Amino acid sequence: MGPTEPLIRNISDTARWVAVYRARESERPDALFRDPFARRLAGERGEEIADEVLRRSRNDWSLVIRTYLFDTFITDHVRHGGDMVVNLAAGLDARPYRMDLPSSFRWVEVDLPEILDYKEGILAGEKPRCQLRRVRLDLANREARRALFAELGRESKGALVVTEGLIVYLTAEQVAELAQDLAAPAGFRRWAHDLMSPGLRKMVMRQIGQLLNEAHAPLQFSPEEGPGFFARYGWRPAAVHSILQWAARKKRVPFLLRLIALLPESQGRQGSHPWGGVCLMEKSAAGAVASAAGATTAAAGAAT
Fold this sequence. Notes:
With 304 residues, this protein is an alpha/beta fold. The protein contains 11 helices and 7 strands. It has helices at residues 11-26, 38-56, 60-79, 95-98, 113-122, 142-155, 172-183, 198-214, 243-249, 255-261, 285-303; strands spanning 84-88, 106-111, 131-136, 159-163, 188-196, 235-242, 276-283.
């Protein structure tokens, strides 16, 4: 780092930070998952970021459990006949290399060119376990992403979209537009994302907000409605897993937090309560209508 360079330079650096926690979890004898590539992907900068974040906030357990829960949803998707994962803002995720996936399974990573170029360089010589495609795309380009979603939706009969660690950095309007765009392709059946309450977002921003603000990547999305936010855009929750409750179940939090995790909690509104979860959404009737409308629009465009 230069003398005036921020520790977290941009949102891509958050991927290096999270990779450190995957590496440290992988080195435990009772690891919930094994990611043999995480240490290399994180690099020295990732270690520096993780150490500083842990000095301000002991939140490493939450990101470990987040990874574990996404792994669980993906494993279930493959087991039940899903044919594709579309990983948006894939960052330094190495699941196509580390998970037990059929060789015919299709995995599509979408992210900015610089982060995918970096990952390809680190993983050069490694072989993914499935059919891996990387798409270099700025997801803020709505027209380009809609075209990609339409293409992938035609190629898949049952895709799971993954947005791990993405939507929390977006505004509510941007998340609404993304939800609408993901509901349009008929082949996009399910969507896994993480979510936080307004109370948790405020708490995290008090702890590490300075680092995120310097990177122009503040946490923004924490809907009052919880998972119910997505209903108007064609999605309903199929499963909502509390990160704290699963961390207590897997013994990744201090004893006091395990006791707090025994308290009942709602899967809906959380308000000022500090709550974080991983949600599996499935397309609702409204989403099916959006799919049909999208198909009609695509057909009309092809005809002209």
